[in-house]
Amino acid sequence: MQRENIEYYEKIAAQLRIDAVKAVYHAGSGHPGGSLSAADIVTALYFGEMNIDPENPEMEGRDKFVLSKGHAAPIQYAALAERGYFPVEKMMSLRKLGSKFQGHANMHYVPGVEMSTGSLGQGISASVGMALAGKMDHSDGRIYTLLGDGELQEGIVWEAAMAAAHYQLDNLTAIVDWNGLQIDGRNDDVMKVTPIDEKFRAFGWNAIMIDGHDFRQIFDALDEAKATKGQPTVIVAKTVKGKGVDFMEDQAGWHGKAPSEEEAKSAVKQLGGEW
């Protein structure tokens, strides 16, 4: 992997954002804001970090990614498509009747999806089980899970966090997409979740705070997570909801709303793509 070539990852992330915007537009519904905020993290994982093989999705010893914030499925679909699991055109059937590309990814329909998610908190809980199984099987594969910040309001998240520390799951890395917004507004107004890093540390985790749009910081944090032994690691990534599209950035209204044709064209242009 060419980690030093940051421009390479920035171009991929821009393309993933373009794919996600187009898919949500064609669907007429979906979640663009949280997909765009997570694009750089997802790019780093799929294109610079994880040991995976699109030609052999069930490869033994592979790393596994679980999208705990399952509503951000468009960005996972985009990453899988651009990584070679299926043609990008297929994901443009997002949310259509009969499409395999549901609003929340289904592990039985889409290659590369390791866990069906949607109910918030269940993704990290499943990831803890996968990491524990990996330990028991002496697998080299690591488990990565991406949570939303509003998702931290779910009690099941903290049950999972307690179990992960208890079983010393150092093969588990959780990443929090901390964009400060959720469907009903700002986290601080709905239910304050900060200080996120201190809460995870209190549960026995190694916690790292980063800029979730800085690839060097993302990769350094992933390296630290791999080097940390005896405890799981959480990477708290400060991000901007709707990142890359000026009228979507830091706007809670774009949590779960599809753009119009005019808005979609503007978004794609801003991201450096063509309609």
TrEMBL record:
The keyword Transcription does not apply. One of its GO terms (molecular function) is metal ion binding. InterPro entries: THDP-binding, Transketolase_CS, Transketolase_N. Transmembrane segments: none annotated. Residues 253-275 are annotated as: Disordered. Residues 11-272 form the Transketolase N-terminal domain. Keywords: Metal-binding, Thiamine pyrophosphate, Transferase. Its cofactor is thiamine diphosphate. Gene3D superfamilies: 3.40.50.970. The keyword Signal does not apply. Belongs to the transketolase family. PANTHER family: TRANSKETOLASE N-TERMINAL SECTION-RELATED. This is Transketolase. It comes from Eubacterium pyruvativorans.
